Amino acid sequence: MITGLFQYEFLQNAFLTGILIGLIAPLLGVFIVVRRLSLIADALSHVTLAGIAASLFLEKKLGLFQGVNPLYMGMTFSVVGSLFIERLRIVYKHYQELAIPIILSGGIGIGVIFISLAEGFNTDLFTYLFGSVSAVSRNDLWTVLGITILVLSVVFLLYKELFLLSFDEEHAVVTGIRAKWLHFIFIITVALVIAASMRIVGIMLVSSLMTLPVAAAMRVAKGFKQTIFLSVIFGEISVIIGLIVSYYLDLAPGGTIVVLAVVILIGAIMWKKLWRGRSQ
């Protein structure tokens, strides 16, 4: 039954893309959660929606960007939004959390304007909102593969610096780490991952894939590296099983993946309580 899934190219694209996203989303999600920036994924996902809506509007009403994947403009908006977040965090030095709702509100506002100009939702936009197995193209797969290579390179080369910045930024700066540039590199990488995840999970649920596996891993892991490892494992389980279930039951893949991630989180919490009960 499982091998029958891969007889079509769009299913191959969906599963390979999902496996890559299941790796990079929780991987960056660990650093996001530790830095207490969990809501940043929500903000950037709505900014990405604005970019996708703008691309669809320009294509539909003005005939521009014909044949160009709307995801590219969504990525552009997401990267610009991430840079604005970092800039606002500097402006509001003592109230840095304000940067996220400001960009979130702006993204929603711009997105709604472009959706109304395009005379409402269409099928293409719904696939970005909630994810779609059939909508994942081979170009989407190559795009996500490129972003995966970028993410793994950034984490591998800058792991020590990112670790220090996540837990003790002041100490990191004292040791000579260029915190400002690292923040920009990290936030841009997060923006690209969020934009790339939309075909599978959908804009409305992408932040869940970056936080729920991490939340589950934090309940059972005994160290930071183990948290990263378990987050990726939980993310991959959610994506792979979620795609299989959504295909055979004809469900939205994004919702199925997130529900499985919630189930894993509940299981991790219950397991932790049972473990404590036995140890006592």
Fold topology:
Elements: H1 9-34, H2 40-62, H3 70-91, H4 99-117, H5 123-130, H6 138-157, H7 159-167, H8 169-174, H9 179-196, H10 206-220, H11 224-249, H12 253-279
Helix pairs in contact: 1-6, 1-9, 1-10, 1-11, 2-3, 2-4, 2-5, 2-9, 3-4, 3-9, 6-9, 10-11, 10-12, 11-12
Question: What descriptive keywords fit this protein?
Answer:
ABC_BtuC-like; ABC transporter involved in vitamin B12 uptake, BtuC; transmembrane; 78% helix; 280 residues; 12 helices; globular; mainly alpha; transport
Overview of this protein structure:
The chain has 280 residues and is mostly helical. It has one domain (3-207): Orthogonal Bundle (ABC transporter involved in vitamin B12 uptake, BtuC). The chain has helices at residues 9-34, 40-62, 70-91, 99-117, 123-130, 138-157, 159-167, 169-174, 179-196, 206-220, 224-249, 253-279. The longest helix has 27 residues, at 253-279.
What's the quick description here?
The protein has helices at residues 9-34, 40-62, 70-91, 99-117, 123-130, 138-157, 159-167, 169-174, 179-196, 206-220, 224-249, 253-279.
Terminal-residue CA separation = 45 Å
Mean pLDDT: 84
Residue windows where pLDDT falls under 50 for at least 5 positions: none
Alpha carbon gyration radius: 19 Å
Q: What is the strand tally?
A: 0
Helix content: over 70%
Shape: globular
Using the coordinates above, name the CATH class.
Answer: Mainly Alpha
Content-based structural category: mainly alpha
Q: Write the H/E string, N to C.
A: HHHHHHHHHHHH
Compute the number of structural domains.
1
At the third CATH level, what is the topology name? ABC transporter involved in vitamin B12 uptake, BtuC
Strand fraction: under 5%
Number of helices: 12
The CATH superfamily is known as ABC transporter involved in vitamin B12 uptake, BtuC
**CATH architecture verdict:** Orthogonal Bundle
The biggest sheet, with number of strands, parallel, antiparallel or mixed sense and barrel status, is: none
